[in-house]
């Protein structure tokens, strides 16, 4: 792992019981943990609090997307779990993004609040189907600048757009990139993908990696190999 690139393991398990065997073998020094919709819905807030208690940096990936008041309350509830980072969808608009920021403004140790731009599973054909005519990179940049102007800390994007975001939004605007695939790993439903060393070479702060680790024969060895590849 380089000084600035950290792997967050996406714990996309059905329930806490299925997730603990891997978590018990991991240390907060070698990775952060991402809890998404499936595991949070089944395992709940106490599971997240336990990860925080074990000193893991937790990215609670619930991608809130609703009216500003609802998002503000949801972000606050997520933040009070003690997590390191929470997120919302940038396409909820500027007032919604500002509400997300305001939700944690009075906290002593607020989580980072970031916005999802264009899902890494989406192609330009997918964007056209939902009425977006610009290229994926242009749309990601537009949403990243909107998130920046609303005072958010960074964005979820694909590694393909990471350099353009740093150029447009500055180097302290965090880029969180799923869609990371070691050479030979199955692409699955991801479309805008990059290898871990290529992404680290771009200085990307957070690499989110799920199935290439969790579905490996030896998930801990898979994580170690990825961390090694970042420093090679
Ligand atoms: O644009 C996005 C936003 C979030 N994700 C999440 O990241 C992980 C990726 O898992 P893999 O198994 O490595 O594909 C997953 O939890 C997604 O919900 C994303 O992939 N893309």
From TrEMBL:
Pfam families: OMPdecase. PROSITE patterns: OMPDECASE. HAMAP family: OMPdecase_type1_B. It comes from the Bacteria. The lineage of its organism: Bacteria, Pseudomonadati, Pseudomonadota, Gammaproteobacteria, Alteromonadales. PANTHER family: OROTIDINE 5'-PHOSPHATE DECARBOXYLASE (PTHR32119:SF2). This is Orotidine 5'-phosphate decarboxylase. Its EC number is 4.1.1.23. It is an enzyme of class 4 (lyase). Substrate binds at residues 12, 34, 61-70, 120, 181, 190, 210-211. GO terms for cellular component: cytosol. Residues 6-226 form the Orotidine 5'-phosphate decarboxylase domain. GO terms for molecular function: orotidine-5'-phosphate decarboxylase activity. Gene3D superfamilies: Aldolase class I.
């Amino acid at each position: 792992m380089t000084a600035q690139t950290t792997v967050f393991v996406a714990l996309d398990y059905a329930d806490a019981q299925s997730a603990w065997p891997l978590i018990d073998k991991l240390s907060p020094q070698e990775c952060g943990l991402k809890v998404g919709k499936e595991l949070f819905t089944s395992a709940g807030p106490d599971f997240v609090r336990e990860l925080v208690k074990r000193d893991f940096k937790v990215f609670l990936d619930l991608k809130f997307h609703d009216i500003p008041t609802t998002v503000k309350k949801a972000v606050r509830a997520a933040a009070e779990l003690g997590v390191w980072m929470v997120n919302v969808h940038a396409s909820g608009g500027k007032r919604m993004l500002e509400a997300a920021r305001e939700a944690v403004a009075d906290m002593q140790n607020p989580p980072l609040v970031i916005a999802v731009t264009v899902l890494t599973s989406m192609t330009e054909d997918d964007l056209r189907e939902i009425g977006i005519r610009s290229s994926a990179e242009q749309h990601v940049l537009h949403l990243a600048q909107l998130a920046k102007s609303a005072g958010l800390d960074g964005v979820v994007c694909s590694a393909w757009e990471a350099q353009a975001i740093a150029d447009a939004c500055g180097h302290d605007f965090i880029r969180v990139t799923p869609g990371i695939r070691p050479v030979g790993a199955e692409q699955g439903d991801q479309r805008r993908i990059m290898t871990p060393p290529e992404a680290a070479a771009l200085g990307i702060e957070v690499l989110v990696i799920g199935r290439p680790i969790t579905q490996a024969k030896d998930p801990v060895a898979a994580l170690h190999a990825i961390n090694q590849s970042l420093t090679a």
